[in-house]
Amino acid sequence: MSLAPDLTEIAARARSDLRMGVPVVLSGRGGAALIMAAETLEAQRLADLRALGGTPVLAITARRATTLKARAYDDDLARVILPPDVSLGWILSVADPADDLKSPMKGPLTSERGGAVDLHRLALSLVKSSRLLPAALVLPLTEGVEFARRHGLTLLDTAAAPQLELTSPLHPVVSARLPLAVSEAGRLHIFRPEDGGEEHYAIEIGQPDRAVPVLARLHSACFTGDLMGSLKCDCGPQLRGALAQMGAEGAGVLLYLNQEGRGIGLANKMRAYSLQDQGFDTVEANHRLGFEDDERDFRIGARILSLMGFSSVRLLTNNPAKIAMMEQNGIKVIERVPLKLGENTHNHHYLATKAAKSGHML
Ligand SMILES: Nc1nc2c(ncn2[C@@H]2O[C@H](COP(=O)(O)OP(=O)(O)OP(=O)(O)O)[C@@H](O)[C@H]2O)c(=O)[nH]1
Ligand SMILES: [Zn+2]
């Protein structure tokens, strides 16, 4: 055992740096690069980056590139070449679709073609998992180790692990009795990832028999719906409805997964809401921001169920992707239990879009 952080831990440090606007050095088989998140970039750091010379690019996802009509030569991402007089405002307007309709012409944007893109791809996964806008400045470096040491920057060297797994293993921390309105026999369990990231919770109702399928719900955090009573989605009524059903049956498990906004974070979800006010639906808004429809990692839910000793569930959901992910990750879905609650005039279109575009069962 070493006192030094392992790669997953260094990746977690890198995410904190990117959120603060501090650059990170990536190194791998394809060379080395200095990266910065577009969202947290400051004018002085952009000037410092320019002073280093070389040719930085702005890595964006193919989703964002489609909206911007930039060529994505690298399948899932595009490397947009910075104009010689690049400004902070230009970078932010490529990264953030907020003003796309007001000032549509950012280009024409020219994309880089050929060469290795592993580090660009890693940069985008890091900014995405930092819950920032999916856009990163990437400047190739001739040498990474000494550069990182000289500037005191985090160095993430993936040469030994090109397929770096950014989802960290989870461990139970504590559980305690929690009497609830739906059942006095409630218990709250806390699970913490090894990399110090967001904790996830499980509410166990009663004492479900591990040998039979348990009534289960994988609920993704929705600050607006769960706590504020937002009418834009159905999360609050679904959360309370699922707990009520478990209380009525006397047993169940509800996972409260901190994957706000289908995994894009609350700030990005609010960006998506602004785009929805400009006329885009929930899926289009995610795409314009540069995200996939759903960025959640449902392996987390499957792992928590396994850690709690459950191997088969009666899953409360209308989402076929959740069922597929459970099955792929070792949890048998014996039955789908529909959960249709909370439709209103504000979320009618949102629910219809989920049915039409994400295959939700009505
Ligand atoms: N990005 C984005 N996320 C949203 C939007 N509306 C709600 N959400 C998030 O979507 C998630 C809702 O997840 P779930 O309740 O698991 O819903 P689901 O995937 O439709 O599946 P079931 O409810 O099980 O059928 C929460 O994390 C919400 O914060 C939106 O317009 N955009
Ligand atoms: Zn919601």
From TrEMBL:
List the pathway annotation: Cofactor biosynthesis; riboflavin biosynthesis; 5-amino-6-(D-ribitylamino)uracil from GTP: step 1/4
Give any single GO term for biological process. riboflavin biosynthetic process
Query: Which is one Gene Ontology cellular component term of this protein?
Result: cytosol
Q: What class of enzyme is it?
A: hydrolase
Could you list this entry's UniProt keywords, alphabetically sorted. GTP-binding, Hydrolase, Metal-binding, Nucleotide-binding, Riboflavin biosynthesis, Zinc
Which sites are catalytic?
294 (proton acceptor), 296 (nucleophile)
Q: Where does the record place the GTP cyclohydrolase II domain?
A: 174-338
Q: Which free-text remark accompanies the cofactor?
A: Binds 1 zinc ion per subunit.
The EC number(s) attached to this protein equal 3.5.4.25
Cofactor(s) it depends on: Zn(2+)
Gene Ontology molecular function terms on file: GTP binding; GTP cyclohydrolase II activity; zinc ion binding
State whether keyword Chloroplast applies. no
Function of the protein: Catalyzes the conversion of GTP to 2,5-diamino-6-ribosylamino-4(3H)-pyrimidinone 5'-phosphate (DARP), formate and pyrophosphate.
Name the family: Belongs to the GTP cyclohydrolase II family.
Q: Enumerate the HAMAP family for this protein.
A: RibA
Official protein name in the record: GTP cyclohydrolase-2
Per the UniProt entry, what species is this protein from, by scientific name?
A: Roseovarius mucosus
Q: State the encoding gene.
A: ribA
